[in-house]
Amino acid sequence: MDNWRLPQGDIFPITKSCHGLVLVRCLDYDLHYVWNPSGNELLALPDRTPARVAWRGRRTHLVYGMGHCSTTKQYKAVRMYDFEHDDGLRDTMCEVYTLDESTHWRPAATRPHACQPLRVNGRQGGVLCNGNLHFLHKHGLDLPSVFNINAETFSTMVLPPELGSYSPDFMLTELDGCLCVYHTKPRDHPKFAEPYHIWLLRDYEAGKWEKLRCIDWGSMEESESKPLKSSWIAPLDMHYEYDDSARKKKKKKKIMFGTGACKVFVVDPDTGVPEVLFSPEKTIIGDCGSWDSEFPAIGLFEERLASAGRSSEEIIFSSPSAQALAEVLTYLLARTVGRLNQVCKGWRAMIKADCFVSAHLHHANHDRLPHIMFTDGLPYGFKALEDVIGTSDTPPVIDEGSRVVCSKPCYGLNAGSFGKYDFVCNPLTKYYRAIPPEDNINGENVTCTSSTSFLYNDTKRMHLDYSGADGPFAGRVGLGYAPNIGMHVLVRLVYKEKNDPATRDYKLECKIQLVERHDWVEIDPPPRPVADVPPVYSSGKLYWMVDPEFGPRSSAYCELG
């Protein structure tokens, strides 16, 4: 896949081709795209976080799928997710996005049946077969949810009874026009060498399954089976061959498989012996060594001039009334626009559109006057200078001896440190998210809005050097912006070791986080030690001052890293 609009990272298909279109996922940023491989047309699906759960400040796992409505001749993207209410009760939600028509995700015509939590494995979406999307649940033998693309109604279906021994090591796909169940034991599983079976739903209405033996690992030599064993093996299609041994040519079906190492082989169900059709070693790609992916690495597509349609922005602003409304909203204060974001889904889609955000940023900062805010480092602790002048109100200030470190604005957000935690905020809209030093201990951050309270347990702080002698280490958190994906990026630096300056030894740890994702990813730290000075963002990069007291000696006393 070669498209300059795609972000860097692991990108793979989560559905088979649906009338020429494929649904792909970018793992690193949890983005989903509709892609036409024939014309290399790409459409990003909007709103990676459903509006219903956005205020909770925690990550929601979703399962996506795509189908084609035979009555309206439209493509529909579908997503399902589990939603837990404040009273502990749980619902499974389903939303639909119609390509080239919708500006936002809408609820499906009917609600899913009460069922167990959805199974979310990240490498496969809902499986389309016979006009229905099929979604599995966390407990493997629970009845799958079946979503009809045309009527947007739900039903359930029965899985093969033999699956009890494979649960939950199985997945669904479509094969030869039938729903197919195949097991997915990883290559290091103790039972991986057992015969590999698949089940085909030959009679969809009656629910009759046919079991096929596909791979007999035990009958193969180690030298034959080792190159084909992979962390991802899945049926791709039926492969047809002609038998020349008979007087008349007879078409014979074999099952085609793909692996995480980009190899393709076929298997005759009568023998169970694989035959390799394609291997990267025999192409210009060359030997890939031991490389093997647990995510789909190869697939088939159909040559078709299908269009992914217009983006939600293009649809929204094709209306003259929407253009007029957007023009009015660009002149309002950010905090007012933030409240109007909750009026309806149509307004939310407009306000979240990149072109509207850029226009509002231009109008809001046209006078180039700085917005001065007072803060004590706590949620709600923001007050504008103009709200204090001429009044007897006391602005929020920090206690004597305390220290708040705050970055300059970066595309509307600020990041900083206060005491033993970091935070991301928008002072104008009162958005505030506290980030404890090791927030992956309990898996959640603390997000504060006007309707939530702030709690932080100091005992969860790790014994690492997060603070300087007089307060927080000023260089420990930086905030940047990735324009290719339209997301803010946090960078956190921590000194895990910092010995006497005479030895100049240190150990620096670096992690990054997408503000909307809430999970940290460790990367290589900067090559030089970082000084107790806040970093600066400029033109897509973050710059830190170098600490001259540690690391290799330099002729320059102070430099940018």
Search tags:
561 residues, mainly beta, 5-stranded antiparallel sheet, 4-stranded antiparallel sheet, 7 helices, globular, disordered C terminus
Helicity, in percent?
under 10%
> How many beta-strand elements?
35
Total count of helical runs of at least 4 residues: 7
Report the average pLDDT across residues.
Answer: 79
Helix-strand category: mainly beta
Shape label: globular
- The percent range for strand residues is 25-35%
Q: In terms of per-residue confidence, which ranges show pLDDT below 50 for 5 or more consecutive residues?
A: 439-447, 449-471, 555-561
Q: In what order do the strands lie side by side in the largest sheet?
A: 23-24-25-26-27
Please report the distance between the alpha carbons of the first and last residues.
34 Å
Walk me through what this model shows:
The protein is globular. The protein contains 7 helices and 35 strands. The longest helix has 11 residues, at 354-364. Strand 30 (477-482) and strand 31 (487-498) form a beta hairpin. The strands form 10 sheets. Strands 23-24-25-26-27 form a 5-stranded antiparallel beta sheet, with no helix packed on it. The protein has a 4-stranded antiparallel beta sheet with strand order 1-2-3-4, with no helix packed on it. It has a 4-stranded antiparallel beta sheet with strand order 5-6-7-8, with no helix packed on it. By secondary structure, it is mostly beta strands.
